[in-house]
Design goal:
By secondary structure, the chain is of the alpha/beta class. The chain has helices at 51-59, 98-110, 116-129, 145-158, 175-191, 205-211, 240-243, 247-269; strands at residues 9-20, 23-35, 40-44, 66-71, 74-75, 83-87, 163-167, 197-202, 214-218, 226-231. Strands 6-7-8-3-9-10 form a six-stranded mixed β-sheet, with helices on both faces. The longest helix has 23 residues, at 247-269.
Length: 270
């Protein structure tokens, strides 16, 4: 198969079970999925359905009980600089400034490929892109939640991983801040050469539709699997105000509501 035809991420028969005092707990099962280059894919489903478990496996932070995950045709065996991760909890170093939180990530990953001047230039570029250059000397405790997440996103894009993994990065933010960060995420992705693919966990239907090329809907856990993969064919760039008045948006939202709400009630009844 030509390299260009190889999916960015290929997930084959992945299952993940955890040891508990009561015996093995099967979190996810029978996960088969292909994620293509230059796609933004979201995982959506109810709490406990294994979205974050699968994201951690893609990051190399967990090893599946069975199955495999390939990145550009090579099996993932652990964490690596070809994947960047942004968590909901920001994970900033509180004793470093905004600038140094980004710069230290660049130094740790690209110390042998970038000059100090190039690192400074890239750090400034990503902080300007998320409108934080004027706050570069501040420490994380002096930032709002939205600003902290901007730093985390800027840091991830600065190292230019092939795949960016986002675990509900906007879930704790208010609606206006969340919308602004969604737009900044899309802007950074469109202007960052090496970040080919983005995979994001979300619980927000509108966020999934606005951001995604594909939406992966999970069944309820335990032993969760993929209920359906829904393509989003809305043209980019997207205008959220116009998008919500289109029939394509209405159809997508109806289908997601059917899977998430009606599917949940069916599972509970069973």
């Amino acid at each position: 198969m030509p390299v260009s035809a190889v999916p960015a991420l290929q997930i084959d028969g992945v299952e993940m079970a955890f040891a508990t005092p009561a015996g093995p707990f099967l979190a996810i099962r029978d996960i088969d999925l292909e994620i293509r280059r230059h796609e933004l894919v979201t995982f959506i489903g109810h709490s406990g359905c294994g979205k974050s478990t699968l994201l951690n496996i893609l990051a190399g932070l967990g090893k599946p009980t069975s199955g495999r995950v390939l990145l550009d045709g090579l099996q993932i065996e652990g964490p690596g600089p070809d994947r960047g991760v942004v968590f909901q909890s920001y994970s900033l170093l509180p004793w470093l400034t905004v600038y140094d939180n980004v710069r230290i990530a660049l130094e740790s990953v690209h110390y042998h490929t970038l000059t100090r001047a190039e690192m400074s230039e890239r750090t400034e570029a990503v902080l300007r892109a998320v409108e934080l250059w004027d706050h570069r000397k501040k420490l994380p405790p002096h930032l709002s939640g939205g600003m902290k997440q901007r730093v985390a996103i800027a840091r991830a894009f600065a190292i230019e991983p092939k795949v960016l993994l986002l675990d509900e990065p906007f879930g704790a933010l208010d609606a206006l801040t969340r919308a602004a960060l969604q737009d900044e995420l899309l802007n950074l992705w469109s202007h960052t050469r090496r970040v080919e693919t983005v995979v994001m966990v979300t619980h927000d239907i509108d966020e999934a539709i606005y951001l995604s090329d594909q939406i992966v809907v999970f069944t309820n856990g335990p032993a969760a699997t993929i209920a359906e993969v829904i393509p989003v064919r809305l043209e980019r760039p997207r205008d959220r105000r116009r998008m919500v008045h289109t029939s394509e948006y209405a159809d997508l939202k109806d289908r997601l509501m059917e899977l998430l709400v009606c599917g949940s009630k069916t599972a509970q009844a069973a």
